[in-house]
Amino acid sequence: MKYDMLKFILNSSEYFFINLHNTNDVIDCCYRTSIFLNLNNNQTEIANEDIQEYSERFDLLLTLALSQELKLHISIKKDLGFYWNQDMNEKNPAIFYEQGDGHLDWIGTKYLLWSTSGEAFQQFGTWLYNDKFGNIIFEVTPIYPKTFINKEDPVEVKAYQEWMKKSYKPFYTRIIPKEVAEQWLKQCKLLLQTIHDNTKRLDEQEEL
């Protein structure tokens, strides 16, 4: 394993990395692990799922962003995380939906790169998109601590509204230079190839 391909560097103090449980682990399609964002040596978990799933998603969105194909929908006037919390917990007539697989999806989910599940201490959504100037934006936003509220419970509704009003703000937002995004894409493709090769080899060993 070339560990350098698991570390995606923005600058000397800011990067994210894919965590291995053990240094001798063989990563295949079903290897479940976390991605951590490192800011001045402080680490925050921003994804936890199968490595192939978030690698494929990263490859797709990076490719689109480098081609200027991830500009925000006209309905998105605030940051994506703000709308995502609203989509999960309240009605907002400004939120635009499109037809998904048998149901309507908020248009903003097309920019969703990763998210943490309830396993994480604090939950986040990570986004990749092009701003109005064509810059590639990498953004991490918090999810309401309970994720979903009981909309019939006035206490929960009030707590959520207070959090959105007083506590919610994007956790991390950076412009990713094109050359950095291109390097990340190279690493991602190498990682996907490694996952493919390891999965194939392990499958062949099981057949023996």
TrEMBL record:
Protein name: Uncharacterized protein
Phylogenetic lineage: Bacteria, Candidatus Babelota, Candidatus Babeliae, Candidatus Babeliales, Candidatus Chromulinivoraceae
